[in-house]
Amino acid sequence: MNNRLINWFKFASPQSFYPLAGKMLPWFVVLTVAFGLPALWLGFFVAPTDAVQGEGYRIIFIHVATSWMSMFVYCVMAFWAAIGITYNTRLSGMLTAALAPTGALFAFLSLWTGALWGKPMWGTWWVWDARLTSELILFFLYLGYIALTAALDDPRRADRAGGILALVGVVNVPVIYFSVKWWNTLHQGASVSLTKSPTMAHTMLWGMLLMALCLWMYTIAIALYRVRAIILERERHTTWVADLPEVKA
Amino acid sequence: MSALLAIVRRDLLLAARRKSEVLTALFFFMIVVSLFPLGIGPEADMLRKIAPGILWVAALLSAMLSLNRMFAADHQDGTLEQMALSPTPLALLVGGKVLAHWLVSGLPLVFLAPVLGIQFDLSARALGVLMISLLLGTPLLSLIGAIGAALTLGVRGGGVLLSLLVLPLYVPALIFGAGAVEADISGLGASGHLALLGAQLALALFFAPWAATAALRIALE
Questions:
Q1: Which of A137, A164, A181 to mutate to test the interface with B (most CBs of B within 10 A)?
Q2: Interface ipTM
């Protein structure tokens, strides 16, 4: 018998993770709302109007949070992919697959809100800035992962091939970021500076942090929801799935 | 080491027997490069400016055209399984296949590029830098491409999927490869770009055969 507090490997089995995910899901939904409402309230009502940018800057609250999350989710995916390849656990691959659409969504939203913000602020929808370009490539990496796993019919092969792709991608993300950054400085100089932002009001910072936490909790909630669906789909031939009350009903 | 050489010799022999496949990729490179002046216009100043980027993008695309075939034939006739069972480490054999792919589809580009560069009115010095950047960069394309080729082995619609997987990973090679030539033209000196390209090559040389091997083993299961 093992004397650790929790035997983590117990939850590596889809059978025991499915009910656990079901129990955790409502809590993360509650946390999403609990962080999201004050974030929106701070962002829309409390944060002062920016002296230069007017009201339009308020898109920052969603834009910054989605950008952070799009990068973070890719790292989490790579983490689960590494676990999956090392321990050969089935659940890790399912979690990686469950996170990918959310990550791609965040990358897309980050680009989209960035364009909406860029038009009134810089007068253009798109600049070939280092951050925008590397975010775009990150979006392509997500699409590549989703396309690869969708093209492979055998789910186990899809998980493991996708895992290798996620790991190769995560090694490349810093290389891509710095190469784009140096390429950018060589080409266009400092026509648009994103880094020299004016000192931010505390309420703005809090709004962004709360929104990031809200999206983080949302990611966990939606990934748990999606992983439950994936488990049901892949384990539909087993007796424990057939015995589930929600399946019987 | 002799196993690696044997693989290289075998793949080169196979390529020599199917010349059209190799030549198609090279002609593709030449045609794509020649299309750009037709689309953009013949002003020498403009052409000189865009030449490095166009030559490099065309090199990426033509290297990608032949990636599909890196493992496909061996996978179909079962050779790949025998390689996986052989006492020689599979990563070494994969390295041999990558080397052969580069010799067939990367190295010719290095020698074709300066000829096409003349069409774009590049100076002799810039052509030299272009050759060096391609010499360092095309093996990188073969190495990264091998991972993609192994991952998409036996997948329906593998060709299009391969481009989606591999092209984003080619971005750093493109930036520093084309950047080296541009930096040389603008008088900044190309050594920094070339050093970074070389560093990427060293990294890929170490990691890519290993990742491609892991992907192959998944495909062979």
A1: A164
A2: 0.86
